[in-house]
Automatic annotation (TrEMBL):
Its main location: other. Belongs to the FlgI family. Residues 1-23 form the signal peptide. One of its GO terms (molecular function) is structural molecule activity. Keywords: Bacterial flagellum, Cell projection, Cilium, Flagellum, Periplasm, Signal. It comes from the Bacteria. This is Flagellar P-ring protein. GO terms for biological process: bacterial-type flagellum-dependent cell motility.
């Protein structure tokens, strides 16, 4: 299966041919972030009620009792000096992201996560919870039925859990109560931040914007920033200018990179990866240690004891290598895959080979191991 996947990748790389330039052109909206056009993280501390005996144990989570008492007192119920021991409530953190240009009355999704010893939030209801931003102001209020992402089954002798029942979501569970103070229409210039900083890509973005609006409208400041002069576009509002800019296309440049995941044996390489002239040989060394203890019994009517005599068989077997393969200089991604497949190696052995090639100084790419 692995060889088939690699063969398909190699075939695709060979089939792209003259259409590669067009296929690799990406819209600017997928390459950059516009300065000021961003979301804001929100967080709140609330209470989920209505759980079927799977809530916090209040002796172990005193903060749950405290917030429940505060809520009841705000509702006019005096609970001073009372002792609570219900199992149908759980203290939770509520998180959300306030999108850019959200307006009062809009609704956003929220995530609810238990912070005590609750076993499950399934079927619970989040009580009205204010959501604060980093400036301490309340921007939204969340409330609604929690949709938990798992389930728990429990018996007298065993417990089984599927997924994560202590975390859930509430779609459109928060209503925006305050807008972010940002006057977008008054902007005269805007910075475009590249998600993957690169000097060549920044220069290409500058050139394509200037080709559309005129010379001097855009300027690459560094590898991750391009300044866009909105006042020089002469297209009206900033929103109209950005709508035209974000649909312009460029072919981004990136560093040659090899990413390896040792746990799953996954190898991902870009088509810019090059390998200098190098020879590769791959073989297997097997060390076998087997214990075969021997039990020795005394003779009949003899005054003796049963003795276990250790017996160990040790052997080393070195299988024949798959041969010595020579990789010529300037090898491309497709040729690397074809060469590794010719050796008949597994993905995990490929990782070891790539590490050795990198250590030898023949792999000209950034090597990332996860």
């Amino acid at each position: 299966m692995t060889r088939l996947v690699f063969a398909l990748l190699a075939g695709l790389a060979a089939m792209v041919g003259p259409c590669a330039a067009v296929a690799n052109e990406i819209r600017l909206k997928d390459l950059v972030e516009f300065d000021g056009v961003r979301g804001n993280d929100l967080v709140g501390y609330g209470l989920v009620v209505g759980l079927n005996g799977t809530g916090d144990g209040l002796r172990n989570s005193p903060f749950t009792e405290e917030i429940m008492a505060n809520i009841l007192e705000r509702l006019g119920v005096n609970v001073s000096g009372e002792q609570f021991r219900p199992k149908n409530v759980a203290a939770v953190f509520v998180t959300a992201s306030l999108p850019a240009f959200s307006r009062v009355g809009g609704q956003i999704d929220v995530t609810v996560s238990a912070i005590g010893d609750a076993k499950s939030l399934l079927g619970g209801t989040l009580i009205m919870t204010p959501l604060n931003a980093a400036d301490g102001q309340i921007y939204a209020v969340a409330q609604g039925t929690v949709i938990a992402g798992g389930a728990t089954a429990e018996g007298e002798g065993a417990t089984v859990t599927e997924g994560v029942p202590t975390s859930g979501v509430i779609p459109s569970g928060a209503r925006v109560e305050r807008e972010v103070d940002f006057d977008f229409t008054s902007l005269t210039s805007l910075r475009l931040g590249l998600r993957n900083p690169d000097f060549t890509t920044a220069l290409l973005i500058e050139q394509v914007i200037n080709a559309r609006f005129g010379r001097g409208v855009a300027e690459a400041l560094d590898s991750g920033t391009v300044r866009f002069d909105l006042s020089a576009t002469r297209v009206g509002s900033p929103a109209r200018a950005i709508a035209e800019v974000e649909n312009l296309r460029v072919e981004p440049q990136r560093k040659a990179r090899v990413v390896v995941d040792q746990r799953s044996g996954t190898i991902v390489m870009g088509d810019e990866v090059r390998i200098s002239r190098v020879a590769v040989s791959q073989g297997n060394l097997t060390l076998r240690v087997q214990e075969d203890p021997l039990v020795v019994q005394p003779n009949p009517f003899a005054n003796g004891q049963t003795v276990v005599v250790p017996r160990t068989n040790v052997g080393i077997n070195e299988e024949d290598g798959t041969g010595l393969a020579e990789v010529p200089a300037g090898t491309t991604l497709a040729e690397v895959i074809e060469g590794l497949n010719a050796l008949g190696v597994s993905p995990r052995n490929m990782i070891d080979i790539l590490k050795s090639i990198k250590a030898a100084g023949a792999l000209h790419a950034e090597f990332i191991v996860r």
